[in-house]
């Protein structure tokens, strides 16, 4: 029996090798889609066609409906439309008696802006290959993982191996904000016994992640021509006090007792001042300044608690300033309402992933806690579907010259294939 397993796996790995150049070209194609927020439809159409025509999967498209999702505890409030922005689900449905367990492979195709592109050495939408690296916005985070999960199933199908349980391939929108794409697909009934998400963690398994909210702070000033600036109130200058308060809150968060999953991390709860908008003329004192920030917080804490606490903290800081006391900032939240989680690695999902990892990497699987958020939270927190992340090696995520190591993409493709053979089982 062991020889049969070895022979089947070798046959599938041979298919990964045989289709490697096609896999690289497919990744290059995905990298050339500028699939930023609101611009995901073309890449989703491309992927849906591939899943249907090349993998012979049953393909569905799901459009998130805020009205249907709004009562869900994992829902995040958007400020944009979902029209023509589908989530794609490809279904491999095993025939006959189910012997293994079903699985979801889920990757996000939305990417953050590459601006300013002047800081890049390569075209962020060019999928440039230099040596063993491919460069581009979203190449590592996480189009390479998406390609690996698709081509792992493709290799199994090309090897004429029939899996004994179902596989769902999901490419979702809005992982970089809200997570409503993943949530919508689950709520439509696309569920399984486990979910594996190919985040670029350098072939490590994810066991914990922080929670995340986005906050918007609108600071009022008293505008004027600069000839009377001494009698005006500059909203930009007033906003400094709110920036300082955010950084003070960050210190307070990190001075609290740490969640055990982050006990060894020196600074797990990060606050990022991500956007500042103000002014429209150099010779006009601005009347308004808007700050937008991302706030991380420990697992086990309700996002609403952090929102309430942060709002009170900022308003208390405003009380110390004469202008802000009389003209308090307007504080609101949008885009992310994400709870953190920690998952026990002593369960079948991790055991199977480690077995597959060892076959390819010939070393034990390591696990890590993540100071960001991923869509794995939905499965673990709300649906009792164990989920982790495991993906290729890359760097400069959200920064200039983002890249992925292509050799790691090939190895991860094989690991996913080995995982499918073990988790779903197959018909001899």
Walkthrough of the structure:
The protein has helices at residues 2-18, 20-31, 41-53, 66-69, 139-158, 180-187, 235-255, 303-319, 322-326, 348-361, 376-382, 406-423, and strands spanning 58-62, 87-92, 103-108, 128-130, 133-135, 162-163, 167-172, 195-197, 205-209, 211-220, 224-225, 271-278, 284-285, 288-297, 330-338, 341-342, 367-370, 387-389, 394-395, 403-405, 426-427. It has two domains: 2-209 and 341-427, Aminopeptidase (3-Layer(aba) Sandwich); 212-338, 2-Layer Sandwich (Alpha-Beta Plaits), CATH 3.30.70. The chain is elongated. The chain contains twelve helices and 21 strands. The chain starts with a helix and ends with a strand. Strand 4 (128-130) and strand 5 form a beta hairpin. Helix 1 runs antiparallel to helix 12 (406-423) and helix 2 packs antiparallel against helix 5 (139-158).
């Amino acid at each position: 029996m062991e020889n049969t397993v070895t022979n089947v796996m070798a046959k599938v790995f041979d298919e990964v090798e045989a289709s490697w150049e096609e896999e690289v070209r497919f990744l290059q194609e995905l990298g050339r889609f500028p699939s930023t927020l609101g611009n995901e439809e073309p890449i989703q159409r491309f992927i849906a066609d591939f899943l249907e025509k090349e993998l012979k999967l049953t393909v569905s498209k799901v459009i998130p409906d805020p009205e249907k999702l709004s009562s869900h505890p994992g829902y995040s409030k958007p400020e944009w439309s979902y029209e023509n922005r589908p989530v794609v689900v490809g279904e491999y449905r095993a025939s006959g008696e189910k012997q293994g367990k079903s699985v979801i492979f889920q990757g996000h195709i939305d990417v953050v802006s590459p601006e300013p592109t002047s800081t890049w050495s390569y075209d962020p939408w060019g999928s440039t290959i230099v040596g063993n690296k491919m460069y581009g916005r979203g190449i590592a985070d996480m189009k390479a993982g998406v390609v690996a999960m698709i081509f792992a199933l493709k290799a199994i199908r090309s090897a004429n191996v029939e899996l004994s349980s179902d596989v769902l391939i999901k490419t979702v929108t809005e992982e970089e904000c809200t997570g409503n794409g993943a949530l919508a697909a689950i709520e439509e009934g696309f569920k399984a016994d486990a979910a594996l998400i190919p985040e670029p963690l350098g072939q490590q398994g994810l066991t914990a992640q922080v929670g995340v909210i986005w906050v918007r702070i609108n600071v009022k000033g008293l505008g004027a021509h600069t000839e009377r600036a001494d009698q005006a109130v500059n909203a930009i200058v007033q906003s400094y006090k709110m920036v300082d308060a955010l950084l003070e809150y960050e210190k307070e968060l990190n001075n609290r007792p740490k969640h055990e999953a982050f006990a060894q991390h020196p600074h797990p709860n990060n606050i990022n001042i991500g956007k500042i908008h103000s002014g429209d003329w150099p010779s006009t004192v601005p009347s308004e300044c808007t700050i937008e920030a991302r706030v991380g917080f420990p697992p086990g804490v309700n996002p609403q608690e952090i929102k309430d606490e942060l709002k009170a903290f900022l308003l208390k800081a405003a009380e110390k300033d004469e202008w802000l006391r009389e003209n308090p900032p307007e504080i609101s939240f949008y885009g992310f309402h994400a709870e953190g989680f920690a998952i026990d690695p002593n369960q079948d999902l991790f055991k199977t992933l480690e077995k597959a990892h060892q076959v390819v990497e010939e070393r034990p699987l390591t696990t890590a806690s993540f100071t960001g958020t991923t869509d794995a939270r939905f499965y673990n927190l709300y649906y009792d579907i164990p989920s982790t992340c495991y993906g290729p090696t890359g760097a400069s995520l959200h920064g200039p010259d983002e890249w992925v190591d292509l050799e790691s993409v090939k190895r991860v493709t094989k690991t996913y294939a080995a995982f499918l053979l073990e988790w779903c089982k197959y018909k001899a």
